[in-house]
Amino acid sequence: MTIALARRYRPKRFADLLVQDHVAAVLRGAVARGRVGHGYLLTGPRGVGKTTAARILAMALNCPNRDAAGDPCGECENCLRVWSGSANLDVVEIDAASNRGVDDARELRERAMYAASREGHHKVYIVDEAHMLTREAWNALLKVLEEPPPGVVFVFATTEPQKIAAAAAPVLSRLQRFDFRRIGPGAIRDRLRQVLEAEGIAADDDALTLIARHADGGMRDALSVLDQCLSFGEGAVTAARVREVLGLVGDELYAEVLALAAERRPEGVFPLVDRLVDAGADVAEFMGGAGETLRALLMVQLGHEPDGLTEAMRLALQRYRDRLEPGDVLRMLRLLAESEGAIRRSTNPRLIVETLLLRWTMLDRIVDLAQVLGEGPRGESTERQPRASAAPPAAPAARSAPVSAPADPPPAAIPAQLDAIRVAWPDLVREVRERSRFLGEALSHTTPAALELPWLTVVLAEPNALFVEVLQAQAQVVEEALRQSVGEAIRLRVTEAAPVGAAASAPRRKLSDTSIKADRLKDFRARDPSLDTAADALDLEIVD
Ligand SMILES: [Zn+2]
């Protein structure tokens, strides 16, 4: 195999541009009607076909055998030269990311003045990584675009259009812009399957799924991974081979995660994540794999036989199918879904994975209870919350859980600013809830109590270990919302109000202490009769 697959199977006609039908239709129509513009901007993630579309446009403009619909033949010498990116009088490709590219751009203005090599031909400039062009280069280009020579077409491709907007807004306004879409895993899988069929090579569905997930919307990356897999060994492309090539986490580690969750062993979480990180695994990738594992477990529990499992995974699923309830697995998946948003925004994804795994291993029915309380009907939970206008619990009986500060008693409030924050609080909660439903839920149970810049102390109306945990783990999100809302760099500190009926001086108990959960559950049930129904519906029980 000498030619890379990504190159060999690069589309030659608009019709073959995967997923980007909206772009293909407009460009093809413009060619067919002879109404091609002088400047185009193609934006989108890497590997989704921007440069390919630019080349097809260039091919179509100069192809002697172009069809009535506007597609190039893809076979004539002219088409093939453009398609392969080889030297061509009428199609000039510039990579703006290289130093040479910037120099080229400076010469563009001169060069663009020359007409195409032949009568009726177009001169096409394809500028890749266009956001790398200097302001100077853009200024030169602007002059060309203001009075474009006949037959000259500029196609700029970029992953970062906002940088062009910042450096060259006037140029942008002269370009016709097309936003390329990410290519979904299903479309990538189908295309990989086609390519493999053309090559006469077999592959597992799982293998293609793994590649598609790894490629993250980019066809070029997917084909290049497939290339690596093919050069890595003979015969069919298997999931195991893809894992090996991509350094994906092995199934043994996922089996271990199931063990930790089934056996409620939070102490095993940190060593496991250490090993994961030491092995150079990508934590986001790991979370995806853990999700697949849970899904497979759920399928087994519900009597299905998932396809394409490795032997190690099949054994692990058999072993744990009866040791985790399907309801627990669903809850784990829900917690995973909540964390997946956070991990993309976080500067510390490792912490989020650790928090998630800890929650899995501490998974208990109290989890549901906390959510039932938080999301109960008719918002009755807010009744237990001090009203924003009420006097702040100035010295909350501090069983304190500071987010990132020493557990000093909260300082005296600065009334005006604190009041402003209190007024803004409901809106802020709503905004945070939009970013993370669960974090917003936790925040809705807090009241701003004291402010001593940069520290804002908020009090949780009820002790709730889970809320404290999520507020701690995602304090940054709240702090960012605060900064946007009140314009101050404010840090968040969370304090729990003392549990009702418990002495304020009660010794702090551990999160995993079952007795505290039982107490709390009884307490909740006593004070909120509606909970009984919900608890029964969810088959909750009081652990004695
Ligand atoms: Zn042709």
Structure description:
The protein is of the alpha/beta class and 544 residues long. The protein has four domains: 5-179, P-loop containing nucleotide triphosphate hydrolases (Rossmann fold), CATH 3.40.50.300; 185-246, Helicase, Ruva Protein, domain 3 (Orthogonal Bundle), CATH 1.10.8.60; 251-363, Zinc Finger, Delta Prime, domain 3; 390-501 and 509-537, DnaA, N-terminal domain (GMP Synthetase, Chain A, domain 3), CATH 3.30.300.180. Helices cover 53% and strands 9% of the residues. The chain contains 25 helices and nine strands. The strands form two sheets. The chain has a five-stranded parallel beta sheet with strand order 2-3-4-1-5, with helices on both faces. A four-stranded mixed beta sheet has the order 6-9-8-7. Helix 2 (21-32) packs parallel to helix 3 (50-62), helix 10 packs parallel to helix 12 (239-246) and helix 14 packs antiparallel against helix 18 (349-361). The chain is flat, with a radius of gyration of 30 Å. The termini are far apart. Residues 365-370, 375-414, 499-521 and 527-544 have low confidence and may be disordered. Bound molecules: zinc ion. Residues 63, 65, 72-73, 76, 78-79 line the site of zinc ion.
Write a compact overview of the structure shown.
With 544 residues, this protein is of the alpha/beta class. The protein contains 25 helices and nine strands.
Query: What's the end-to-end separation, in Å?
Result: 67 Å
Low-confidence parts: 365-370, 375-414, 499-521, 527-544
Number of domains: 4
Main sheet strand line-up = 2-3-4-1-5
